[in-house]
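Worked Example 4.2. Consider the chain below.
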Amino acid sequence: MSTTNVPAGASSTSKNKMPPGMVMGPDGKPCKICTAFRNWRPGTTSGIEGNERGRAGGGGHRSAAAMMAALASGTASEKTNAVARIDGPPPNCPPDVEQLGRATWTFLHTTAAYYPERPSPTQRANMLMLLRSLPVLYPCTNCADDFGEDMKTHPPDVSGRVGLSRWLCERHNEVNEKLGKERFDCAKTDERWKDGPEDGRCD
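Applying the procedure from the previous section yields the following C-alpha coordinates:
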Protein backbone atom coordinates (compact mmCIF):
# COMPACT_ATOMS: atom_id res chain seq x y z
CA MET A 1 0.00 0.00 0.00
CA SER A 2 1.09 3.54 -0.54
CA THR A 3 1.70 5.88 2.33
CA THR A 4 -0.82 8.53 3.28
CA ASN A 5 -0.24 12.13 2.30
CA VAL A 6 1.41 14.28 4.96
CA PRO A 7 -0.82 17.19 6.00
CA ALA A 8 0.54 20.69 5.54
CA GLY A 9 2.88 21.54 8.37
CA ALA A 10 3.32 17.96 9.48
CA SER A 11 6.77 16.48 9.79
CA SER A 12 7.92 13.67 7.56
CA THR A 13 8.14 11.44 10.62
CA SER A 14 4.32 11.62 10.93
CA LYS A 15 3.93 9.67 7.69
CA ASN A 16 2.17 6.40 8.41
CA LYS A 17 1.70 3.47 6.11
CA MET A 18 -1.87 2.85 5.09
CA PRO A 19 -3.49 0.21 7.31
CA PRO A 20 -3.79 -3.19 5.59
CA GLY A 21 -7.07 -3.37 3.73
CA MET A 22 -7.51 0.40 3.46
CA VAL A 23 -8.45 1.43 -0.08
CA MET A 24 -7.60 4.77 -1.68
CA GLY A 25 -10.32 6.61 -3.57
CA PRO A 26 -9.93 8.39 -6.92
CA ASP A 27 -9.30 11.64 -5.04
CA GLY A 28 -6.16 10.15 -3.46
CA LYS A 29 -7.76 9.99 -0.01
CA PRO A 30 -8.82 6.91 1.96
CA CYS A 31 -12.16 5.68 0.59
CA LYS A 32 -14.51 4.89 3.46
CA ILE A 33 -17.19 3.14 1.39
CA CYS A 34 -14.46 1.10 -0.37
CA THR A 35 -13.02 -0.17 2.92
CA ALA A 36 -14.21 -2.69 5.50
CA PHE A 37 -15.04 -1.11 8.85
CA ARG A 38 -12.43 -3.20 10.67
CA ASN A 39 -9.76 -1.78 8.33
CA TRP A 40 -11.10 1.77 8.60
CA ARG A 41 -11.01 1.53 12.40
CA PRO A 42 -7.64 -0.03 13.23
CA GLY A 43 -7.72 -2.17 16.33
CA THR A 44 -11.02 -3.89 15.49
CA THR A 45 -9.32 -6.57 13.40
CA SER A 46 -9.00 -10.02 14.94
CA GLY A 47 -6.23 -12.48 14.20
CA ILE A 48 -8.66 -14.73 12.34
CA GLU A 49 -9.74 -11.94 10.01
CA GLY A 50 -6.16 -10.81 9.54
CA ASN A 51 -5.28 -14.23 8.18
CA GLU A 52 -8.26 -14.18 5.82
CA ARG A 53 -7.36 -10.69 4.65
CA GLY A 54 -3.76 -11.72 4.10
CA ARG A 55 -4.90 -14.43 1.72
CA ALA A 56 -6.94 -11.81 -0.11
CA GLY A 57 -3.76 -9.84 -0.76
CA GLY A 58 -4.54 -6.78 1.34
CA GLY A 59 -6.40 -3.82 -0.13
CA GLY A 60 -6.39 -2.25 -3.52
CA HIS A 61 -8.47 -2.14 -6.67
CA ARG A 62 -9.02 -5.86 -7.12
CA SER A 63 -9.43 -6.89 -3.48
CA ALA A 64 -12.16 -4.33 -2.68
CA ALA A 65 -14.46 -5.74 -5.34
CA ALA A 66 -13.34 -9.25 -4.56
CA MET A 67 -14.12 -8.93 -0.87
CA MET A 68 -17.52 -7.46 -1.70
CA ALA A 69 -18.43 -10.41 -3.86
CA ALA A 70 -16.89 -13.15 -1.77
CA LEU A 71 -18.71 -12.15 1.38
CA ALA A 72 -21.99 -11.76 -0.49
CA SER A 73 -21.64 -15.14 -2.16
CA GLY A 74 -21.55 -17.08 1.08
CA THR A 75 -18.17 -18.59 0.22
CA ALA A 76 -16.33 -16.82 3.01
CA SER A 77 -15.54 -19.01 6.00
CA GLU A 78 -17.76 -19.12 9.08
CA LYS A 79 -14.98 -17.45 11.05
CA THR A 80 -14.63 -14.62 8.55
CA ASN A 81 -18.38 -14.03 8.53
CA ALA A 82 -18.46 -14.02 12.34
CA VAL A 83 -15.71 -11.41 12.43
CA ALA A 84 -17.48 -9.35 9.81
CA ARG A 85 -20.56 -9.24 12.05
CA ILE A 86 -18.49 -8.29 15.10
CA ASP A 87 -16.32 -5.71 13.37
CA GLY A 88 -18.96 -4.15 11.13
CA PRO A 89 -20.17 -0.62 11.72
CA PRO A 90 -22.38 -0.10 14.78
CA PRO A 91 -26.15 0.08 14.18
CA ASN A 92 -27.40 3.14 12.31
CA CYS A 93 -23.94 3.91 10.87
CA PRO A 94 -23.33 4.18 7.12
CA PRO A 95 -22.50 0.80 5.53
CA ASP A 96 -18.97 -0.33 4.89
CA VAL A 97 -17.88 -2.04 1.68
CA GLU A 98 -18.88 -5.49 2.96
CA GLN A 99 -22.42 -4.52 4.00
CA LEU A 100 -22.92 -2.65 0.74
CA GLY A 101 -21.55 -5.57 -1.25
CA ARG A 102 -23.75 -8.16 0.45
CA ALA A 103 -26.83 -6.02 -0.10
CA THR A 104 -25.98 -5.33 -3.73
CA TRP A 105 -25.25 -8.94 -4.66
CA THR A 106 -28.39 -10.09 -2.82
CA PHE A 107 -30.43 -7.59 -4.82
CA LEU A 108 -28.85 -8.53 -8.15
CA HIS A 109 -29.05 -12.30 -7.70
CA THR A 110 -32.63 -12.13 -6.43
CA THR A 111 -33.67 -9.80 -9.25
CA ALA A 112 -32.21 -12.26 -11.76
CA ALA A 113 -34.02 -15.17 -10.09
CA TYR A 114 -37.35 -13.43 -10.66
CA TYR A 115 -36.53 -12.02 -14.10
CA PRO A 116 -38.92 -13.32 -16.79
CA GLU A 117 -38.13 -16.46 -18.77
CA ARG A 118 -39.04 -14.53 -21.93
CA PRO A 119 -38.55 -10.84 -21.15
CA SER A 120 -40.05 -8.21 -23.38
CA PRO A 121 -37.77 -5.82 -25.28
CA THR A 122 -38.57 -3.19 -22.64
CA GLN A 123 -37.67 -5.54 -19.79
CA ARG A 124 -34.38 -6.45 -21.48
CA ALA A 125 -33.56 -2.78 -22.05
CA ASN A 126 -34.35 -1.92 -18.42
CA MET A 127 -32.18 -4.76 -17.11
CA LEU A 128 -29.29 -3.63 -19.30
CA MET A 129 -29.71 -0.08 -18.02
CA LEU A 130 -29.66 -1.33 -14.43
CA LEU A 131 -26.47 -3.34 -14.93
CA ARG A 132 -24.75 -0.63 -16.97
CA SER A 133 -25.57 1.96 -14.31
CA LEU A 134 -23.54 0.14 -11.65
CA PRO A 135 -20.07 1.09 -12.96
CA VAL A 136 -21.30 4.70 -13.12
CA LEU A 137 -23.29 5.05 -9.89
CA TYR A 138 -22.00 2.44 -7.43
CA PRO A 139 -20.56 4.30 -4.40
CA CYS A 140 -17.36 2.23 -4.14
CA THR A 141 -15.51 3.48 -7.20
CA ASN A 142 -12.89 0.71 -7.11
CA CYS A 143 -15.62 -1.93 -7.03
CA ALA A 144 -17.53 -0.12 -9.77
CA ASP A 145 -14.48 0.14 -12.02
CA ASP A 146 -13.69 -3.54 -11.56
CA PHE A 147 -17.25 -4.57 -12.40
CA GLY A 148 -17.30 -2.24 -15.40
CA GLU A 149 -14.12 -3.75 -16.81
CA ASP A 150 -15.54 -7.24 -16.33
CA MET A 151 -18.72 -6.24 -18.18
CA LYS A 152 -16.66 -5.10 -21.17
CA THR A 153 -15.13 -8.57 -21.43
CA HIS A 154 -18.37 -10.41 -20.62
CA PRO A 155 -21.45 -8.46 -21.79
CA PRO A 156 -24.57 -9.12 -19.72
CA ASP A 157 -26.94 -11.86 -20.87
CA VAL A 158 -30.43 -10.44 -20.47
CA SER A 159 -32.09 -12.97 -22.78
CA GLY A 160 -34.00 -14.55 -19.90
CA ARG A 161 -33.97 -15.59 -16.24
CA VAL A 162 -31.63 -18.56 -16.67
CA GLY A 163 -29.09 -16.66 -18.76
CA LEU A 164 -29.04 -13.65 -16.46
CA SER A 165 -28.72 -15.78 -13.32
CA ARG A 166 -25.82 -17.69 -14.83
CA TRP A 167 -24.11 -14.49 -16.02
CA LEU A 168 -24.25 -12.96 -12.54
CA CYS A 169 -23.07 -16.21 -10.96
CA GLU A 170 -20.08 -16.34 -13.31
CA ARG A 171 -19.15 -12.73 -12.57
CA HIS A 172 -19.38 -13.50 -8.87
CA ASN A 173 -17.24 -16.63 -9.26
CA GLU A 174 -14.53 -14.69 -11.08
CA VAL A 175 -14.21 -12.42 -8.08
CA ASN A 176 -14.25 -15.38 -5.69
CA GLU A 177 -11.36 -16.88 -7.62
CA LYS A 178 -9.35 -13.68 -7.13
CA LEU A 179 -9.71 -14.34 -3.40
CA GLY A 180 -8.89 -18.02 -3.68
CA LYS A 181 -12.42 -18.91 -2.58
CA GLU A 182 -14.49 -21.84 -3.78
CA ARG A 183 -16.64 -21.38 -6.86
CA PHE A 184 -20.37 -21.40 -6.36
CA ASP A 185 -22.22 -24.08 -8.34
CA CYS A 186 -24.14 -22.00 -10.88
CA ALA A 187 -26.62 -24.85 -11.32
CA LYS A 188 -27.87 -23.97 -7.81
CA THR A 189 -28.75 -20.30 -8.35
CA ASP A 190 -32.51 -20.98 -8.09
CA GLU A 191 -32.01 -22.97 -4.89
CA ARG A 192 -29.93 -20.17 -3.36
CA TRP A 193 -31.86 -17.12 -4.55
CA LYS A 194 -35.43 -18.24 -5.24
CA ASP A 195 -36.66 -21.69 -4.20
CA GLY A 196 -34.57 -22.55 -1.16
CA PRO A 197 -33.04 -25.98 -0.42
CA GLU A 198 -35.03 -29.16 -1.02
CA ASP A 199 -35.06 -30.04 2.69
CA GLY A 200 -37.53 -27.20 3.25
CA ARG A 201 -35.57 -25.48 6.00
CA CYS A 202 -36.27 -22.09 4.42
CA ASP A 203 -40.03 -22.70 4.01
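The mean pLDDT is 76. The radius of gyration is 18 Å. Compare this with Example 4.1 before moving on.
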